[in-house]
Predict the 3D structure of the following.
Amino acid sequence: MSAHHKHVSDIEDKQIQIDKASLWAKLPMIGVVLAVIGFAVGYFAPSPGGVFAEDEHLWHAKQWTAYLNAFMFVMSLGFGGLIFVIIQHLVRANWSIVVRRIAENAMFTLPFIALGGLPLLMGDTGQNVFEWMHVEEMLHDPMLKAKAAYLNKEAFGVRFGSYLVLWGGLSFLFWKWSRAQDNAKTTEEAEALSYKQRFLAPIGLVIFGLSMTFGAFDFMMSLDPHWFSTIFGVYYFAGIAVSFHAFLAIVCFFLQRSGKLQGVVTPEHYHDLGKFMFGFTVFWTYIGFSQYFLIWYANIPEETDWFQYRAHGQWLTLSIAVILGRFVLPFFLLLRRSWKRNPNYLVWMAFFVVGMQFVDMFWLIQPPFAHHAASAADKAGAVEVATYFQNSITLTGADVGYFVGFLGVFLALFGWSLVTSKLVPIQDPRLEESLNHENF
Amino acid sequence: MDKPKPLSKQASKPKKFGVLAEYDSAAAIFKACEKVRDAGYKRWDSYTPFPVHNLDKAMGLKPSVLPFIVFACGMTGAACGLLLQWWSSTIAYPLIVAGKPLFSFQANVPVTFELGILFSAFGAVFGMLGLNKLPQLHHPLFNVARFTRVTDDRFFIAIEASDPKYDLDKTRKLLEATDAVAVEEVDD
């Protein structure tokens, strides 16, 4: 009954194709430059002195922590792309088809960025961040000895190898089939490719759920090997989901600013992206609080410790900032329907939400480093250094460098995939339903 | 509630509810709604056997105030939940449990959350009923035999006599000019 029913044939080619001269077309190059500069700054950043002055190892540990931090943040965008594509096919969603290609481009980056985990497996690099890689010390600790069957380098290597195969395989298949559909000669061929993707979706969901969870265990939870939380993977997923819908809103907004996707992506789609941002904000809170609540109630030392060292000085400020920035602010600022339907407003919220994903990763990954540094200094009798690490957040050139570097890799791969294909899966048999999608 | 009137008076001059127009398609009522909206009527409504997409826009309906009611109720519920737990655990029954402080916000989050949800749901359901003036035991449109088809295959617009722009002849003409299958006056 709407005033104007849109047809796929109405979409002009220039609406869904990146101009050769635009900044978008230079995105891969910009990404490569950022990556080179970023990684160089991160790797060669000089020790800032102060508490790091006398300990080369401490500085390396900080550098690799910054590396892991940026790595897990950018991984969440790749994961977001993969799980978004899987879910849309799984539920045969109509609304999302016009934004699905953007998610597929993000998904394409996943296996390449995952390679960033490789340095942590090579040589003794991993010892900088993973306490459990110090085998000698580990075997003297009865709690860690009991976990040695899981927490050892060989097992980690096998798991990491299977992640690469699984994430790479899933991303590649969805990516390839969707692109092949653009060139389908007949409707039957396009239908068959849609069917293939729908068939893979439930299998992919199970694979994603398990591998992402174990990936989160391996790369983040094992930073404090005494601690464990079975909900940890879901916590990481909640952050992925909320920030990925925000990421989609950002990309759509800027593509439309450059005159693309006009009349293809509408306030109806922003509204849905906003609803998912809002919904997963509440989901994140639910998961985050559940994790905290049980540990608080049970009050078992090896569990409470994890929160204990996040509740001192600046770390406490950061913890409160995570609660405010991941729940309170987005909850109230995404509440109104008219706000979610206004792209100019939503894009600010989207930037904020994606930014908070980085802060959340910082909150997960950096405190164990500071905690270990503080314990080591305490043992060595360096009270001042111990006090510093207990209370202070250290932001260094390495943090900035690796962040820019990983973001650069992401932009290069994402940009390449964006430029080399159409901006929407133009031959998807249900594209018209997505074009005319309306919220009641 | 109106007081019961003497039978003779009611019979001589029955009060009128308004004018009812009947349509045989969703497209017809959609166009008719736009005309009634543009004519500036305020107290009128459309009745359809199924939700007609975008009919609210054709009718010029403003967004409902229900979200504000739900929000106010939700916040009230959360505040009540917190207050209840604070009062019961520190004043009414100050018992130390598991070595925790008498009032610790962590333990109170679930109930605070649940009462926020419960009150929001009450606000949504009862607010919706209130705004729709439901439940009603009777509606004047049920006086019209043809109106029974509203649950089957017919679409209706009723402009009420209480509308400031209501004028039996003009309103009737307006509705007749909208491809209505039938137009008739309805007794209150």
About this structure: Chain B has two domains: 15-62+136-187, 66-131.
